[in-house]
Design brief:
Blueprint (H helix, E strand, L loop, with lengths): L18 E6 L3 H17 L7 E6 L5 H10 L5 E9 L5 H20 L3 E8 L2 H7 L7 H18 L4
Parallel strand pairs: 1-2, 1-3, 3-4
């Protein structure tokens, strides 16, 4: 894991920015902390409850379809996906983590919309805790930073 996480870029959000956050309920003791940090950071950027909607889905595998449904509404300038997949004793991890990543990326490319991968994929539960506000930064905060930076990037490109 890289410990060289970039510092957040100063971004001035224009009015009418809306962000959807989709969080998995599986491994809720970790995902809830990702969600808390993400929402707190979005609020620090000036987004309030009217501009940020939160949705819960069963697990990381369901994040891509939720992101696709939200993207299709055309109501959001970004969708942030939060989840946590911890490796176990079976290959289940490989399928869930890989397909969640692939699906989230596909939604982003298909919809030309920032869809942020805020899913922890770790070997142990301790590693997940370390990345959810512990020794190795806070993936929920980092996801909010990425969303805001990508919104600003998308709006900087002239349309037409």
């Amino acid at each position: 894991m890289s410990t060289h996480i970039p510092a957040p870029v100063q971004v001035e959000l224009s009015p009418n920015v809306r962000v959807a956050v989709v969080a998995a309920r599986f491994n809720a003791h970790i995902v809830d902390e990702l969600l808390r940090g993400c929402l707190e950071r979005l609020k620090a950027y000036g987004l309030d409850e009217k501009e940020v909607t939160t949705h819960r889905v069963p697990g990381a595998f369901e994040l891509p379809v939720a992101a696709k449904l939200l993207a299709r509404t055309k109501n959001f300038q970004a969708v942030i996906c939060l989840g946590c997949v911890v490796r176990g004793d079976t290959p289940h991890f490989d399928f869930v983590a890989g397909e969640a990543a692939r699906g989230i990326q596909r939604v982003a490319l298909d919809e030309a919309l920032p869809v942020i991968f805020g899913v922890l994929t770790t070997e142990t539960e301790q590693q997940a805790h370390d990345r959810a506000g512990g020794a190795h930064s806070h993936a929920g905060i980092n996801a909010a930073d990425a969303a805001v930076q990508m919104i600003a990037f998308a709006r900087s490109i002239p349309s037409g």
